[in-house]
Amino acid sequence: MQEHTGSELYQAIEYTKSIDEDASRKIMEQLQFDQTALAETIFDIFPAVPVKENGDMSYLFMDLCCDILCIYQKAFGPLPSQNEIDYDWLEK
Predict the structure, then answer these.
(1) Under 8 Å between Cβ of 19 and 70
(2) Is 44 inside any structural domain?
């Protein structure tokens, strides 16, 4: 597992907070293209559970997923295609 210093993580978080909605949408669309199964799980299955109880929780979950995805891409680069056999990126 690759570790990052506090300043590297802080820069990734700052980057995530600085991007606009269009950039976030593009990142999420790229995830849906590159990692279809993972994207379906994150965007379709997981939010369905809290939306039954509280729609705001579902939106919060989606916002946090987007933040995590953006931080990952800033820290490690774009996600590999699901067609690649090497799954080391999951450990990161």
Answers:
(1) yes
(2) yes
